[in-house]
Amino acid sequence: MIETRTKGIVLLSGGIDSATTAAIARKDGFDVYALTIRYGQRHVMESKAAEDIARTLGVCDHKILSIDLRAFGGSALTDAIDVPKSDDVSEIGEEIPVTYVPARNTIFLSLALGYAEAIGSSDIFIGVNAVDYSGYPDCRPAFVEAFERMANRATKAGVEGCKITVHAPLIELSKVDIIRQGHQLGIDFSLTHSCYDPTADNLACGHCDSCLLRRQGFELAGLADPASYA
Fold first, then answer.
1. Mind giving me the DSSP string for 124-191?
2. Among candidates 168, 175, 107, which has minimal Cα distance to 139?
3. How is residue 123 annotated by DSSP?
4. Helix (H, G, I), strand (E, B) or coil at 87
């Protein structure tokens, strides 16, 4: 049986959202156990950023797992597909973009669920957002709620009555609100990485959906974006 709810598993990608989520979990009294997934994305900057963030937040443990979703492909982040570029947030389309990685958050949450049950945690945190985002189906409240229901039916802990909760504290926040909250919680945004398609010398492209949303968020928050852009 799970004996405590003080351990919180946080999926830490190295971006603004996951860093802010980790800080929220810590503020809410959880001992943070960070989990970073190297999934075969084009670059390793995200996991390096996650390591730096985990260190500054003083997490209890930081596990980095490697899986290779390049074996499946189907995404501009894991396959030889061009990352879409635009000049303004208004140009981001409403359709699900090719940067969507098939079932990524389902896979990530499943790994976090296994980690949580193994160490006696019933709380999982994920920094998904359904306001300023690229339209991914696995960032919506309905997905988070469905996964939580599944987790409580598919695990020993769940069927024995220890309710597993999937926390998505950013899900209804805009990017500017996330940045403001992260700033208030002391996140060093210079450590975070957002770009889908950085240059060979690790500069952010400035034109992918993620870069555009990041830059707009900092501008509206009245804060300087510490990212280096090409």
1. EE----SSSS---GGGSHHHHHHHHHHHHHHSHHHHTT---EEE-TTTT--HHHHHHHHHHTT--GGG
2. 168
3. E
4. coil
Count Cβ neighbours within 10 Å for each residue of 8-42 and write b for 16 or more, e otherwise. Answer: bbbbbbbbbbbbbbbbbbbeeebebbbbbbebbbb
Confidence of residue 134 (pLDDT cuts 50, 70, 90): low
Contact of 214 with 56, CB cutoff 8 Å: no
Domains and CATH numbers, the chain: 7-174 (3.40.50.620)
pTM of the predicted model, to two decimals?
Answer: 0.94
Radius of gyration of the chain (CA): 17
56 CB-near residues (< 8 Å, 6+ apart): 188, 191
How many Cβ atoms sit within 10 Å of the Cβ of residue 95? 9
